[in-house]
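Final report, results section. Input specification for complex C-07:
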Amino acid sequence: MKITKKIVGLAAILAVGFTTTATFAADTIKIGEINHYKRMAAFAGPYKQGIELALEEVNNAGGVLGKPLEFIFRDDQGKPGEAVKIAEELMTRDGAVMLTGTILSHVGLAISSYAGEKKYLYLASEPLADALVWAKGNDYTFRLRSSTHMQASMLAEAAAKTDAVKYATIAPNYAYGKDAVAAFKKALTALKPDVEFVAEQWPGLFKIDAGAEVQAIERAKPDAIYNVTFGGDLAKFVREGTTRGLFEGRKAYGLLTGEPEYLEPLKDEAPAGWVATGYPWYDFKDGANKVFVDAYQAKFSQSPKIGSLVGYMTVQSIAAGITKAGATDTEALVAAFKGLDVDTPVGKITFRKQDHQATMGAFVGTIAVEDGAGRLVDWSYKKGEDYLPSDEEVKKLRPASN
Amino acid sequence: MELIFAQVLTGLANAATLFLVASGLSLIFGVTRIVNFAHGSFYMLGAFIGYSLMQVLPGMFGFWFSVLLAGLAVGVIGVIVEICVLRPVYKAPELFQLVATFGVILVIQDLALLTWGAEDVLGPRAPGLKGIVRIFGEPVPKYDLAMIAITPFVLFGLWYLITKTRVGVLVRAATQDREMVGALGVNQAWLFTGVFFLGSAMAGLGGAIQLPKGGADLLMDFNILASIFVVVVIGGMGSLPGAYIAAVLISVLNVFGVSYLPSSTLVLMFVVMAVVLMVKPYGLLGREEVAGEHGQVGEPERPIKPAGPKVRLAVVVLLAALTLIPLFGSSFLSVLATDIIIFCLFAASLHFILGLGGLVSFGHAAFFGGGAYVAALMVSYANTPMELALLLAPLGAGLLAFIIGWVCMRLTGVYFAMLTLAFAQLLWSLVFQWDEFTGGDDGMVDIWPAKWLAGSTSYFYLTLILGVGGILFLRHVAHSPFGYALRASRDSSRQAEATGINTKRVQWLAFAFAGAMAGIAGGLFVFSKGSIFPTELEIARSFDALIVVFLGGVKTLSGAVVGGASLEYLKDQITRFEYWRITLGIIIIVVVILAPEGIVGTARKVGERLGWVREQEGLR
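Structure output:
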């Protein structure tokens, strides 16, 4: 019986293998998009819609190199091993010319390493880890979104302007949280050498014990709090902190806290007064930002999230890259992405030659509650290039450039 | 001092939810012996249903009514699950039901996403209990006090129900000997259904009552799962007061951990569990499990014998077909086949201790991931050549299994399983936390095979040789005197001891051997992917293997391989669709119901009935 099973299974594998290889539609330019569509549905959904909007626009305008652009969306279940397998399938069987996607940093790193080994181009759209372009950076990986280092430096700049000296930090206990705290500490200490970090809290990701964390921070009596928690952890932390009066008379800085993905679920309990990075789509009066928001709302009847913007800009970057390369082979594309300029809703961004990081910036503002919803007010757009280290420092950070 | 008092209160409030959910799990396990993985899903449903009800029902009355209704609604869902999914498989081998509950998890995840959307929802605050009271000057939320007050009443209510009522007497009787209860004329089926209702309702209640402290999201089902298992095990499986004590212990310790050792949050719980189980092997208030107490469910396993000439011929043909894949298939096909073979070896190594040794391990990923990390660390830090690293992977994993096995061997049954889980979690958090050395969750990247094996074709052949070789070696050991001794220790340890077999030592060695074989799989995995992350050490990874072993057929020799190949291939195909989770979940549930002895076991039976396979000489 075992044998029959095995043979049937094998026959099925072979059959599928042959049929799909045979049906190769060659008249579109295919991009392989790998993401955690189910595991992180709240983030991947708006991101995918941003892609769809941009694809529609690009293809209505005649596509790239005279061919329509096509995305193949694949779910990796949030597992790095799966993502690598899918990457191989997209490139060798489905005829994708390059790879993009992922939100989780470790999955992004797995694809990046694979891309470097197999010489496939990978545009990391959303993962934030600094290692992606620096410590573990390679020739075939580029990153679009402003990294942990950049966003944390923006908040540190705002924090340095106040007279707070004693800081408490709270961040989820994994790489992103640790990077975010380290970057903030480094940037703030450089700007204001007398600051002191009196408490560092490390709740498990999505397993926060908010009451205990609030008590622990209160015990340290800081002047200001730097928050990196997000999602359900943020909601719990904000609620317990507000109930117990933790934020009264204290400054607070929240990394990503102002992004609609995290701010909207909090409704009227959004932590007013926090300085945070985010995306104030509701506040744009004119310009490219407004055009994007209007087009997005017209197509989906939903408000855009930061993920929508990143998805949209991913397609713009890829279209610009292929157009500049004038071809779809990997080496031409890699050469084109180095120093590639792209016009996007947030302005012109450049994929830097020295570390493959795009200069997409972030919106920094103060959270306020208006009409029962959290909003980012008094915001300004901070350009990414102003928060990236100097070329010499990049050389030290990025072994791949040497 | 004031602060410490306030911290204890925080701990007690946290214990409330944990106890409510864990007590349900404990009840269900105590009576039905089902390890209900879907319990976290019931908790999540309770939160979402409670949230929806609170939007409609206003005021203080509405709030508490919503909490109760959410509990009842989830109880009813539990009953539906029990009747439709679990009832048909009670006669299957012990623990087989956990595969069915895994299918339920997948179905509920997609249904919840469809019903409530992807965004997190913030729970409403409890009307009338929004503020704080100052106790010794420290702020304590009123709702915390309410939760602290409610829990003892629930505990008392459950205790009264179980110890003082007729229903409770029947439930306890069924816990001790369900066959006898059946023989005395009690309708077992409805007793089980009733307990399932109560247990699920407790999970739903827990989900709804925590809303003012947080909210509902789609990840909460898995996020609570490990903690409630830990609580149930520390308290002693089936003991309600034990669950309460354990919930309080864990929660209060956690509060102090957060304050005085902030980065301990990942491990604390598992350290406590490991310590408790080493001192009190059956939990704080648990009863020692007597072997055979619950009766061997299902048919006894048949003796195994070496494959006949026909089977051997067929295997040779199959292997020949496999070697042709790179010649006729695409390079992706080689990659997919590589993945499947690696997973099959991993599953087969678990099957060796689970099927032949009768030792259920919930932490087998420790050795798969362990082997992978050994190889990755050697390559990264010692510049070890890939060939040597591949050799060190099983040695490292085997050594790890040798050590963990030594500690775990004192326990049996579910407690053994949970202790292996605890150690796997400890290893996971070590790797996760120690980022200077292991890269934390950013993992280790650029671990590539040597030049001569770099292509997917040559790597496929390497995997084919080592993977299939490993599977055949496991099979060979099963037929060796060591394999006989291992099965003897499983089936009748007393007789085995009497014939001079040191059963504990045999099992210990088998555990280490299985760990080493999982290490080979891990080593192959890391070089095929080029990177390794702590996800390969996660509970979910252990469960992947556990599920395919049961799905394939735990009482057959080839079950793990057939189950592994089928599920891995099915997943590859199904994840291409949008609602793949519900599809996969339903397929698993249907397979479980149609093939309660696993794919191979049931296929063999059908074959015998139709006369294709000779009775008692099935292909195994």
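Chain A touches chain B through 81 residues (CB under 8 Å). The domain at 149-284+362-387 of chain A is CATH 3.40.50.2300 (Rossmann fold). This concludes the modelling results for the funded period.
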